[in-house]
Amino acid sequence: MGSAIAQRLMSAGHEIEVWNRNSAKTKPLVDAGAKAFASPAELVDGSEVTIVMLLNDAATEAVYGAPNGILKAKLAGKLVIDMSTIRPETMKTNGSAALQQGAAFVECPVGGSTAPAKEGKLLGLVGGSKADVTRAMPIMEQMCRRIEHVGDIGAGSMMKLAVNLPLLVYWQALGEALTICKPLNLPADRLIDILTDTSGAPTAMKGRGPVIAKVLGGAPLGETAFGLNAATKDLACAVQFGASLHAEMPVTASALACYQEAEAAGLGDADATAVSTRWTQRKATS
């Protein structure tokens, strides 16, 4: 996702500087004209605006807190926009540390996948002070079709977990629905077409449904739009945050266990919809 966002900003005319924990991942962007830096601190020092997008809490804690991390940069006067999907408490901690050093800090986790990211059509769920959000708005508007400022730092992360949760639960529910349709012996494309044209299907089925049908028909797993490992992390964050609120989340917890099982089976790098197709092939455990 971060690479797709960088491509979008480059297409909008911005000079882009990049850093990644795996430097090989920056090569396509460098080949397209971006400048690579050796550390997060150097990147922040050399940039007016820093956009952060990392996989999970551990990654953000390492990149902010490392000896050459974001918090070691000269942050005074800089703008940091963190687009990671992580626990609200982690976002608050990172944001507070940046603010204490004089930076403007906005969180903007987004709804969408790589295709809308390249087109600037993400849904931005924003947390931060009114002044910092106003400052960040011109950049966020080039990345997002809709921007919702939902509260202070941490609020965007809460909203993002809520946005992702129903869709991720749906992919598991779809796998179970497909399983009970097996006796019908319908062609996969027809079955998916029927299920897509119902009130229970999410908008994502319009794009991912045909891909799921191909996999059900024997084709290899397609391109990853949103990784199963990232989906597993998001469900885990939702369950953990729910527990902190003393909220019961039995459906989410059950879906999480199914995603973890799929990840353990080697599907972590596949698209999250692989949890649906895998379920149709899985042998019952009891």
Task: List how many beta strands DSSP finds.
Answer: 8
What is the tally of helical segments?
13
Spatially, the strands of the biggest sheet line up as 3-4-5
| CATH class call of the largest domain | Alpha Beta
Level of helix content? Answer: 40-55%
Strand content: 5-15%
| Protein structure class | mainly alpha
CATH topology of the largest domain: Rossmann fold
* Main sheet characteristics: 3 strands, parallel
- The N- and C-terminal alpha carbons lie at a distance of 39 Å
Number of domains: 2
Order of helices and strands: HEHEHEHEHEEHEHEHHHHHH
Which residues form runs of ≥5 with pLDDT under 50? none
- Radius of gyration, in angstroms, nearest whole number: 20 Å
CATH H-level superfamily title of the largest domain: NAD(P)-binding Rossmann-like Domain
Please describe what this structure looks like.
This protein is mainly alpha-helical and 286 residues long. Helix content is 54%, strand content 11%. The protein has 13 helices and eight strands. The strands form three sheets. Strands 3-4-5 form a three-stranded parallel sheet, sandwiched between helices. Strand 7, helix 7 and strand 8 (144-151) form a beta-alpha-beta unit. It starts with a helix and ends in a 5-residue tail after the last helix. The model has no long low-confidence stretch (mean pLDDT 95).
Secondary structure elements and their pairing?
Blueprint: H1 2-11, E1 17-18, H2 27-31, E2 35-36, H3 40-45, E3 49-52, H4 57-65, E4 79-82, H5 88-100, E5 104-107, E6 110-111, H6 114-119, E7 122-127, H7 130-143, E8 144-151, H8 155-180, H9 188-196, H10 204-216, H11 228-244, H12 250-267, H13 274-281
Parallel strand pairs: 1-2, 3-4, 4-5, 7-8
Antiparallel strand pairs: 6-7
